[in-house]
Design brief:
With about 150 residues, this protein is an alpha+beta fold. It has a single domain (about 5-120), classed as Aminopeptidase, CATH 3.40.630.30. It is about 30% helix and about 25% strand. The protein contains 4 helices and 5 strands; from the N terminus they run βααβββαβα. It has helices spanning about 15-30, 40-45, 95-110, 125-135, and strands spanning about 5-10, 50-55, 65-75, 75-85, 115. It has a 5-stranded mixed sheet, with helices on both faces. α3 links the parallel β4 and β5. The N and C termini lie far apart (about 45 Å).
Length: about 150
């Protein structure tokens, strides 16, 4: 499979296939992520601020990746944030990640987001190369997290 054969879709409603795909893919992104069942996934997909993308293998039709684009309207304008990008480890390097990121950037452009941000684990070198090829640049800032 290559990126030309990858089909990216926006998830408009949940199906058992999508729940299964998240169950398979999320542990590859985060060992601490709780399993997603239909109800929490439905809340994510139905939120007007979220657009969930999936990538399908052109040959098998299997879901091989996912990305969530979050839109935030704040005083400085509409901003977009890419979260939870994961491509199945067996299909990495085939263009699925590139196709997901491009679909998210295209959507952000259509809704006129001023910026699109993301964070990436420092050890994910291949992901960094993907983001840089897509036009992202490193921003001199710090990310802070509070966990209640």
């Amino acid at each position: 499979m290559d990126g030309i054969n990858t089909k990216v879709e926006v998830v408009s409603n949940d199906t058992p296939e999508i729940v299964e795909a998240f169950a398979r893919l999320l542990p590859q992104l985060s060992r601490s992520a709780p399993p997603l069942t239909l109800e929490p996934l439905d809340r994510i997909v139905s939120s007007p601020s979220n657009t969930v993308f999936i990538a399908r293998s052109g040959s098998s039709g299997q879901i091989v990746g996912t990305l969530t684009l979050v839109l935030m309207r704040i005083p400085t304008g509409l901003r977009a944030w890419i979260e939870d990008v994961v491509v199945d480890q067996m299909t990495r390097g085939t263009g699925a990640g590139r196709a997901l990121v491009q679909a998210a950037l295209d959507h952000a452009g259509r809704v006129q987001a001023r910026t699109v941000d993301l964070t990436s684990n420092p050890t994910r070198i291949a992901a960094h190369k993907l983001y840089e090829k897509a036009g992202f640049s490193i921003r001199e800032t710090r990310v802070y997290r509070y966990q209640p």
